[in-house]
Automatic annotation (TrEMBL):
<dbReference type="Pfam" id="PF00293">
    <property type="entry name" value="NUDIX"/>
</dbReference>
<comment type="similarity">
    <text>Belongs to the Nudix hydrolase family.</text>
</comment>
<dbReference type="InterPro" id="IPR000086">
    <property type="entry name" value="NUDIX_hydrolase_dom"/>
</dbReference>
<dbReference type="InterPro" id="IPR015797">
    <property type="entry name" value="NUDIX_hydrolase-like_dom_sf"/>
</dbReference>
<dbReference type="InterPro" id="IPR020084">
    <property type="entry name" value="NUDIX_hydrolase_CS"/>
</dbReference>
<keyword id="KW-0378">Hydrolase</keyword>
<feature type="domain" description="Nudix hydrolase">
    <location>
        <begin position="12"/>
        <end position="133"/>
    </location>
</feature>
<protein>
    <submittedName>
        <fullName>ADP-ribose pyrophosphatase YjhB (NUDIX family)</fullName>
    </submittedName>
</protein>
<dbReference type="InterPro" id="IPR020476">
    <property type="entry name" value="Nudix_hydrolase"/>
</dbReference>
<dbReference type="GO" id="GO:0016787">
    <property type="term" value="F:hydrolase activity"/>
</dbReference>
Amino acid sequence: MSNSAQESTSTPLHSVSVAGVVVREDGRLLAIRRADNGTWELPGGVLELDEAPETGVRREVLEETGIHVEVDELTGVYKNTTRGIVALVFRCKPAGGSERTSSESTAVGWLTPEEVAERMSEVYAVRLLDALDGNGPHVRSHDGKRLTPAR
C-alpha cells in the first residue's frame, strides 16, 4: 500500500453540513421539528460535493421548510467531535415561499429566541443565538449533546 493510501485510510473523515438561521423582520427564527428524532433544529443538511456553501443553505432551507432565503453571512462553524460533522451556519433573510413540512420535518415554525432556548438542545440553540449576537463567526465544538471548551 502506498504511503498516501495508508494516510487516507487512517485519516478520520469529516462531512460538511450547512444550516440557515433565518431571521424574520419581527425577530422570529425559522426552525423545524425533525421527522427522524422529533427534535427542533435549524433547517440544513449535508453540503453536496459540487455545491457552494451558500447554494447548499438555500437548497436545504427550501427543501425542508418551503421558504426561499437570501444568505447574509457566515455566523459560525460547529464541529460534532463524536460524528465528525462540521456545520457551517449562515444568517439568512426570508425571501418568499410559504411554510410547509417535508419528508425530513414534521413541523415548521417561527420561534422567538426564548422558544429556541426552551425547545432546542444546547448545541443547536447556540447556533441561533450566535447568529443574532453580531460577533461571529463563532467556532465551537461539541460532542452531540454539550459544547466542549476550546483547547
